[in-house]
TrEMBL record, chains A, B:
<feature type="domain" description="Acyl-CoA oxidase/dehydrogenase middle">
    <location>
        <begin position="160"/>
        <end position="266"/>
    </location>
</feature>
<protein>
    <recommendedName>
        <fullName>3-methylmercaptopropionyl-CoA dehydrogenase</fullName>
        <ecNumber>1.3.99.41</ecNumber>
    </recommendedName>
</protein>
<dbReference type="InterPro" id="IPR013786">
    <property type="entry name" value="AcylCoA_DH/ox_N"/>
</dbReference>
<comment type="similarity">
    <text>Belongs to the acyl-CoA dehydrogenase family.</text>
</comment>
<dbReference type="InterPro" id="IPR025878">
    <property type="entry name" value="Acyl-CoA_dh-like_C_dom"/>
</dbReference>
<keyword id="KW-0274">FAD</keyword>
<dbReference type="Pfam" id="PF00441">
    <property type="entry name" value="Acyl-CoA_dh_1"/>
</dbReference>
<dbReference type="Pfam" id="PF02770">
    <property type="entry name" value="Acyl-CoA_dh_M"/>
</dbReference>
<feature type="domain" description="Acyl-CoA dehydrogenase/oxidase C-terminal">
    <location>
        <begin position="288"/>
        <end position="453"/>
    </location>
</feature>
<keyword id="KW-0560">Oxidoreductase</keyword>
<feature type="domain" description="Acyl-CoA dehydrogenase/oxidase N-terminal">
    <location>
        <begin position="38"/>
        <end position="155"/>
    </location>
</feature>
<dbReference type="InterPro" id="IPR006091">
    <property type="entry name" value="Acyl-CoA_Oxase/DH_mid-dom"/>
</dbReference>
<dbReference type="Pfam" id="PF12806">
    <property type="entry name" value="Acyl-CoA_dh_C"/>
</dbReference>
<feature type="domain" description="Acetyl-CoA dehydrogenase-like C-terminal">
    <location>
        <begin position="485"/>
        <end position="584"/>
    </location>
</feature>
<dbReference type="InterPro" id="IPR009100">
    <property type="entry name" value="AcylCoA_DH/oxidase_NM_dom_sf"/>
</dbReference>
<dbReference type="Pfam" id="PF02771">
    <property type="entry name" value="Acyl-CoA_dh_N"/>
</dbReference>
<dbReference type="InterPro" id="IPR037069">
    <property type="entry name" value="AcylCoA_DH/ox_N_sf"/>
</dbReference>
Amino acid sequence: MYRAPVEEIAFALKHVAGLKAAMDAGTFGDLGEDLVDAILGEAGRFASEEVAPLYKVGDRTGAKLRDGAVTMPPGWKELYRHWTEGGWNSLNGPEEYGGQGLPTMMGVATLEMWNSASMAFGIGPTLSMGAVEALEKHASEDLKSAYLAKLVSGEWMGTMNLTEPQAGSDLAALRTRAERSGDGTYRIYGQKIFITYGEHDFTDNIVHLVLARLPDAPAGTRGISLFLVPKFLLNEDGTPGARNDVFCSGIEEKLGIHASPTCTMIYGDGFAKGREPGAVGWLIGEENRGLACMFTMMNNARLLVGIQGVAVAETAFQKALAYANERRQGKASSYSGEGMAPIVHHPDVQRNLLTMKALTQAARAIAYSCAHAIDMARVSTGADKAHWQDRANLLTPLAKAFSTDVGVDVASLGVQIHGGMGFIEETGAAALLRDARIAPIYEGTNGIQAIDLVTRKLPLGNGEHVFGYVGELDGIAIAVAAMNSEAYGRTALILEQALDDLQSVTRHLQKQLGDGRTDDALAGATPYLRLFSLVAGGAYLARAALADGDERRIALCRFFAENLLGETAALKDRITGGTASLAAAAKALISA
Amino acid sequence: MYRAPVEEIAFALKHVAGLKAAMDAGTFGDLGEDLVDAILGEAGRFASEEVAPLYKVGDRTGAKLRDGAVTMPPGWKELYRHWTEGGWNSLNGPEEYGGQGLPTMMGVATLEMWNSASMAFGIGPTLSMGAVEALEKHASEDLKSAYLAKLVSGEWMGTMNLTEPQAGSDLAALRTRAERSGDGTYRIYGQKIFITYGEHDFTDNIVHLVLARLPDAPAGTRGISLFLVPKFLLNEDGTPGARNDVFCSGIEEKLGIHASPTCTMIYGDGFAKGREPGAVGWLIGEENRGLACMFTMMNNARLLVGIQGVAVAETAFQKALAYANERRQGKASSYSGEGMAPIVHHPDVQRNLLTMKALTQAARAIAYSCAHAIDMARVSTGADKAHWQDRANLLTPLAKAFSTDVGVDVASLGVQIHGGMGFIEETGAAALLRDARIAPIYEGTNGIQAIDLVTRKLPLGNGEHVFGYVGELDGIAIAVAAMNSEAYGRTALILEQALDDLQSVTRHLQKQLGDGRTDDALAGATPYLRLFSLVAGGAYLARAALADGDERRIALCRFFAENLLGETAALKDRITGGTASLAAAAKALISA
């Protein structure tokens, strides 16, 4: 059973990702450590005691579709109600609409806990919060006043409707139609797939944000508009009224996150009897500028999906550690007790557990640092704002892709530590792997994240922003070296080497892009994202260790450096030396 | 849908693993290429056309337990019958008992195909063949003549009963009791768990090989005996008669291989009404020497589970490649056709596909080479026999652990290539990952394999056998260098470096063991097994390329060297430099 690691989360927020310094500088008004700790403590209690116990019924029962209505697993509707009553949905919401206006960092940290307790539970509010952000930034005042307060409180939920069968990563291919109805509203027609929480019984209304094309729109991504399409049209008094012509026609049977309804949504097919076919929608932002609005949601959603990777890794680690302490097999020299040794004493099991813990904490530090950059961008102005916005943009693909890869790898190690029991569903270790496997895929596959990093983030600030960041990480390595402490082992040396690798590979990719050798750069994108993330994660673990000199933190950052950071050399080779053979082999073997 | 890669399998057997040279030398009598090709072709047809179509019903329906009887999925019983009628179960069986006496290599190659088509189908016969081997080597003539012919033909199936709730990796802890009944038979009492195909409706009888303790047996592994316990006792005429007191009390609900019944078996609990409680068993081999008998089965079963990793990786690759050719998203510079590019043209997808293919072929080459060593050991005498036996022993942990890790990694990459569709069960990509996940666990976890490699296999031949093998691999690297061909890129150089790493790390571990620093050696065991396997796999891919100079094989071995072999440096660091920090971190963080 998951126990929220409240102290570890608080420490990472404050001392690794920068919350403490920002609070000390008054950046977040009167937000102080006491309030931060109180919020995290209460969230931890709620996640551990109220969400986690409903994990299993969610996984086993799943969401059920019947006659267009989705029933959530037993107890889940009440759980959601308690959760919104606790104010957890409104944490980051704008104060004007009843939100608490707390930093993104707090939202991300609490979201980690909900997702650790149940990824299937966490993903619904994640997307709803994204809808809030898109509306707040781009919608008209009328739409905001009609919808935002209810979405912020969680009384209603929002969804993101992007994907169509032929349009997944490539949104240019989408075909859902929007027609002007003459009264300022639009009619939407088309089919969307993979719509998370597209239909459910949590709330009285569901507010769909839908990408569609107007008849006279240009082809490609410059012809996409964003619409708000509520499940129930609103009465004069703002309450849900007539059923809109949007229906769920199917839910997917998935590998994991069974309680999260993944819906096929049909717009404007006339299912709503007695009405003209066509789902009534309202434009958000300007016509044909929908993608820009959607990117507001997507960028944050990417970080929040990254947090799912951290979250499931944390739970998998806790579960594996508990099992390793309990399960006894064989002898171990470090165990002097009676009978067989708990397997936690076997060096091979220790390596797996430490790898799990180190990767989880590295991923957490990256994700929280990304959240910090988002917060700083929001409160800053001028060049500072641009700097922090660039930083958030740079870190988003790392936070999404690295963390979710870590989620899968750590969950898989967790299964392995359980031995045969890991393969039995009752144990719950396998369920975490099943859940974790979606996160590298949705909100932009990790391959797309790597392409985004190389082609859109390396050029930031004329290609200089990335080196500013690397310089900051280098400062950490130098600080470790300056400690001159045996406890850190070879951490400083290895970190310096890895930073050198990161720098030289970054220049290599920038040069390839500059020379128009885009395919070569793209061929190295995935190893580059991993290399970058390992270096950042290693540096952040060192920053954590330096922050208070705690023996455990030092041991973990040293373990990471001496056991995991060595991978960077191989990744560097793959990027600089491996792409020619990739092109040759692809030609000979797969696309011939 | 799986199509057996018959030519690739034949090539790997003949030109990488040594079958051709052995046949040319007359090692396997009149076995020649024509027969080999004919067998593989027909097996490929059967696997692709008869086994694979029943995969999905097996996964969806699973094996069902009711009133102690297990019903296999619809069509499976007939499938098994056709399969035994085709002679596939008897391929490696001893000729004296109706087997075809073909080399293990042929059994392994065909087993790969059954497992590619369905791991849940392949695992039953795998264990049954192990039972044949244990009986053939250790059982009395009476037992052999009563059981072997039926087990060889597949009319009956055999099982391995080792695991108990408290005794998984550590068999010393097992408690199942055996009592002498006075008439030469024994009565068995106890519970076994995780018994693969412990109960099913494929055959009229099931022959359990069961580890148990006699009342006066020494403690630990020197007090374990092996018994044959049939589901039905035999009548005078050898047909199944009275029900024995062994019953299946439950089957596990597992992550994957749903059609493989994983049974809890209760021995001697008196369920068989009207009889004295106690399952009637016959001793195999000598009292208290059961583990030695069981190791006969286990060693080969380890190789055969390794083949499951290769098998599922092959299927995952085929599925992903087909999807990547069909699915279109975005633009790619290498695609000049109309509309969106098939995703196989995207460099990142190509990297994933090539990684899948290269790892699969490397794992296959290692597994087949292990099978070759087993064959050579069987037909050799004197020093040659010892040499080949050592070689088989050395390669078994690599074949088991590396291949099954590859199975999981490749299946996971396959899910990723499918994008959102990969998470939908209907697509079938996720099912392969679910299936693959057991193979690193059963028949000795991969952690146990690594410990076996370091502590039992490195000392073989006074610690010299391993260097003889490395020397052979070095010969391949030298041959690549001698080609002096641009097409190989930096293959020779990288392979030489990796071989140097392997040698130095091997000496390092041998020294640690010699110095009694066992824990340090164990802490490096898993990275060492992977390092060893990557080097061997890389060398074998080069041997394949050298064998016929085929452009595709050269491209693949170069891709492996330039993209995957670089990992060896990091693994070396982890082994030589990482274990101190592991010990420190374990003390500080997890076993405190």
